[in-house]
Design brief:
Layout lengths: L1 H5 L3 H11 L12 H18 L13 H12 L12 E4 L5 E6 L2 E4 L3 E3 L8 E14 L12 E5 L10 E7 L10 E8 L5 H4 L1 H4 L7 E12 L8 E3 L10 H15 L8 H13 L1
Parallel strand pairs: 4-10
Antiparallel strand pairs: 1-2, 2-3, 5-8, 5-9, 6-7, 7-8
Length: 279
Amino acid sequence: QWYQRRVRDTNVRDFVGHSIALYRDDNYISEPALATINRMKLYFNSIAKYQKSPYLYPLYGLGELPQGFARLSAIYGGTYMLNKPFEGVTMGEDGRVSGVTSEGETAKCKIVVADPSYFPDRCKKAGQVVRAICLLQHPVPNTNNNQSSQIIIPQNQVGRKSDIYVLCVSFAHNVSAKDWYVALVSTTVETANPEAELEPGMRLLGPVSEKFVSVSDLYVPTGDGKSDNVFVSASFDATTHFETTCEDIIKIYENITGEPFDFSALDKKLEEFKNLTEG
């Protein structure tokens, strides 16, 4: 009610709620306003910190994130086994996972974290996502020739139940050849013609040199994994800002450890990492 009284214009409400607070539906309007205010505060604090944008994107693409995790894991004694087929898990007498089997060999473990493709029997289908990866030879029009952009089209603006997301990165992020741009347009499927649902976002891109469209099933875990220590994440949804992915990671962390993630401890961890790398 507070939000509705303060923000009466529906266009402004859509912009603030979906493009700044990053809500994916309008349920927040009937909920306490403090959560929305905190989301807005996070957005503007991020702009203040990073100047041009509240978003961060890794150079050389998202693949650098698992690479960074692998390096950090190795420093703390972790071992990676790549390109190994997954043949299942073994369970101990206590009903908890005790190992992961691949090519007839079993690696002992106490916890397994996996995406839905490894444990389809522990997940349920929650919808579909349609995506178009587009190659451009120009920045997205009307973005001041920025070499990257993040655009959210609120659902009400295009008569939908789901927002449409447009992300553009480029050679400036070392993800493409010079003067080429890579754009992603995505949304949650609502009709029998998924590609047509992307049209409002596609119109923003201008001329497209190449387009690749895919439709993916969206899965969510049916349990929290606490009973047997097999923790399954959700599929990537249509959002391009990865907030829901971060929330899913934090939720899995809490399910594993039994306590919420302490962001204030990051400074200490970063200092430990610095000492390890410089020592």
